[in-house]
Amino acid sequence: MSEKKTKRRDFLFTATSAVGAVGAAAVVWPMIDQMNPDASVKALASTEVDVSSLTPGNTLTVLWRGKPVFIRRRTQEEIDEARSVKMEDLIHPEKDEDRAKNPEWLVMLGVCTHLGCVPLNDKGDYNGWFCPCHGSHYDTSGRIRKGPAPWNMEVPKYEFVNANTIKIG
Amino acid sequence: MSDHDYRPKSKVGQWFNDRLPLLTLANHLTDYPTPKNLNYWWTFGGILTFCLITQIVTGLTLAMHYIAHADMAFESVEHIMRDVNYGWLIRYIHANGASMFFLAVYIHIFRSLFYGSYKSPREIIWILGIIIYLLMMAAAFMGYVLPWGQMSFWGATVITNLFSAIPLVGEGIVTWLWGGYSVDNPTLTRFFTLHYLIPFLILGLVVLHIWALHVPGNNNPVGIDIKKPSKDTVPFHPYIVIKDGFALLMFMIVFAFFVFYAPNILGHADNYIEANPMVTPAHIVPEWYLLPFYAILRSVPDKLLGVVAMLSAILILAVLPWLDTSKIRSAVFRPLYKQFYWILVADVLILGYVGAMPAEGLYLLIARVATAYYFLHFLVILPVLGFKEKTLPVPLSITEPVLGGSPNLAAARNKESKIE
Questions:
Q1: pTM, 2 dp
Q2: Which of B150, B174, B181, B300 is the mutation pick for testing A, counting most A CBs within 10 A?
Q3: Which residue in chain B is spatially nearest to A42 when comparing CA positions?
Q4: What is the enclosing helix (H) or strand (E) of B159?
Q5: pLDDT score of B13
Q6: Chain B: residue whose CA lies nearest to A135
Q7: What is the number of other CB atoms lying within 10 angstroms of the CB of residue A120?
Q8: Using the 8-state DSSP alphabet, how is residue A69 labeled?
Q9: Is there a contact between B284 and A133 if contact means CB atoms under 8 Å apart?
Q10: Measured between CB atoms, does A88 come within 8 Å of chain B?
Q11: Chain A partners within 8 Å of B281 (Cβ)
Q12: Cβ atoms within 10 Å of B320's Cβ, excluding its own
């Protein structure tokens, strides 16, 4: 194959394939996107929880977007323990102050960041949570300390609507 | 093969065959020259075809009663078990059929590993087989989700979360797979759809698998190329048909034992508890046939690398024909490979065992050693062995060592009698 001048036919082939590819992509995308969360799933994006009955040292588990959310009213001991940890000891360094704006209340997704199991309360080597699936240990701030999970348990967007109600999402 | 010259005897047959050569195909399949020394390890191809058909037929009938909805799936399965006529039988055949399918496929794969059936010129047959195996795992996993019990739900959660290990796009992919923010109804309905589809994809690939097999013909226990047809071959029908049929009957006895006497022994009691997104069962284990890979996943302390190791453990099989550098196919003539083969078998069984145990202490240590050895076998031992191993002399034909005239008569005869 020596040097070849671009011919009228080459141009037509290229133009046809390009338009064809765009057309195919335009048809494929709806087929792919239909699998993403639909409008009814997205509509359930926030939930309000009454936490007035929760006493210190206890955890309430509520369902939000199909996932459990832990609302922990922490004792002073737990807060002290969480705040005294050195950043260099953490796998995923995050200050407790950033995770729990109001130190008494820890709100986070009760989902292990390894493969999505629900960790157990008041278990594990760090007095926080322990995931029974593959052995991840979390501390009293929900931070990963030991085991295969790569990150701390996620803190969702939430706010106190009033003294007794938390709105998640 | 002389089947291209085939002409049906009847006028009608000729008329039909000239327009659609189905009779030529049927003739090819019956006359197909097969090595006469095939042993019972070669009967699992037929057994697997039986398993696939069984799963499709029982699956179709179950789908007539099952309801793919998060609120009704669990109840509809109980409805099948209690109310539907023979529903218990059909469901137990389908559920245990999956296990039997995997049992047969593992024997089939390890037969191929022992006799070097994956080597040139049969690489495409082998790769098609690996794709079928991957699809089988996908179908089995999705099928296990459908009863919507605790193991269904949490198994689905753990396995789909494997994709979250992919950097950057992982979380997006998982949300896309779920169709929501957790495993829920949209996940169940799409799994049902795909679970229904995959067996038919497998069926198509099986046709290609057999087609690719019929080009070079079967490998055999001696692992040499043979002339076809010749003194070394027998026609597929009736010789292999009878042998396959007998093996299938034996296999069905095992199958029936599980269905009628221990239908739940291979399952997990937690799956008779309806799915609950708030509580994870204390100990999540996949079905037995996925345990070795689960052990590999858990043996790596890093999430992404664990997933990579698990996938590599399966995909490494696809490049096996090029990792094994030995020109000799059958382990019968490879004294060193034969030993490493059995160590690999033991290694995979150990991985399966520790996969069912909690990932801690000694179990974790064993899982790590066994995982390392698994990769060592394929990436180091096999490539090196091809150059270093002193293989035994291979006979020129299947009949030769029996009829005499071979310089290595005694050795070959000895080996032959061991095979049979």
A1: 0.88
A2: B181
A3: B180
A4: helix B150-161
A5: 96
A6: B359
A7: 15
A8: E
A9: yes
A10: no
A11: 132
A12: 19
State the pairing for strand pair A129-131/A58-64: unpaired
Q: For chain B, give the number of residues.
A: 420
Which tokens in the block code for residue A148? Answer: 């295969």
Distance (Å) from the alpha carbon of A166 to chain B's nearest alpha carbon: 19
* CA-to-CA separations, B137 to A118, B171, B200, B351, in angstroms, rounded: 25, 23, 14, 17
* ipTM of predicted complex: 0.76
Q: Which residues in chain A are closer than 8 Å to B177, comparing Cβ atoms?
A: 35
In tens, the pLDDT along B209-258 reads: 999 999 999 999 999 999 888 889 999 999 999 999 999 999 999 999 99
**Count of A–B CB contacts within 8 Å?**
84
Contacts (Cβ under 8 Å, ≥6 apart) of A148: A114, A134, A135, A136, B298, B301, B302, B303, B306
Distance CA A122, CA B134 (A): 40
Nearby residues of B9 by Cβ (< 8 Å), 6 or more positions away: none
Nearest CA distance, B155 vs chain A (angstrom): 9
Residues of chain B with pLDDT under 70: 1-4, 403-420
Q: Is B124 helix (H, G, I), strand (E, B) or coil?
A: helix
Crossing angle for the helix pair B87-115 and B241-261, nearest 10 degrees?
A: 130
Q: Which residue type does B294 have?
A: Y
> What is the 3-state secondary structure of B47-65?
HHHHHHHHHHHHHHHHHCC
pLDDT value, residue B178 = 95
A134 as an active site residue: the answer is: yes
Enumerate residue ranges in chain A where pLDDT < 70.
Answer: 1-3
